[in-house]
């Protein structure tokens, strides 16, 4: 019998070791396909495997500028041949577009940050005057906090644009967004595996934005009080459970959109709002949180979920 196999599409080999170990423990082969180094025989047969996309919106910052196009080409090819795909071509489009994420979150009736998308410097400057101060800018195709910067007045943005200080978004779309002030210097990231809530992580942002794996929580210049430096930037939030109203809403949204593995970031603001703002369909897990969890971690849960799908495929072939 053919060994159950999962093909993983990725742009960074350094992300794979925890998954390699977890898949080995499951007895399932993990076959990496780097999105910068592929040839796709469109007349050939797609791999007899589960295809899992770990496309990252920030792939272009790691020397893989066309990762999205390559991923969607492979995913569309595999989907057309009836392969089981996890986080498929529609999800890839969600990963690389904060505009699309915002639209889906708003359509689901969730509280989202006031946001304007702009495709030129003039439009960006006009949006700053419309959105209200203070505000932040960010890239539509983000990840790693690309383009996130705080401005206290539209004139500050004007000066930055005139000086050429703003990094240009790779897809030409920049966002102007209201500045959300958290009740403390943190955001929360809720992890989902197999479409189900796994756990929530508090991400400390008191040391500055660059250390935060979120997208728009604490930015340089934010004037809320910083906490003392913690032992770890990441901490489990056991009080956030599957029964939390936002978690229930997010599970329903992810199911509608076919998102099976994801991390969704939200902020609890000083004025009592709970605001989701970023859907990450490529997620990495904190070893500190995994150790705190005291049970099988999220990487193992991902491997178990995908291994079951791969075994089902082998069983179907055998039948």
From TrEMBL:
All residue ranges annotated as the ATP-grasp domain in the record: 102-315
This protein's UniProt keywords: ATP-binding, Nucleotide-binding
Signal peptide location: none
Domain of life, per lineage: Bacteria
Gene3D superfamilies with a match to the protein in the record: ATP-grasp fold, B domain (3.30.470.20)
PANTHER family attached to this UniProt entry: BETA-CITRYLGLUTAMATE SYNTHASE B-RELATED, RIBOSOMAL PROTEIN S6 MODIFICATION PROTEIN
Name of the protein this chain belongs to: Glutathione synthase
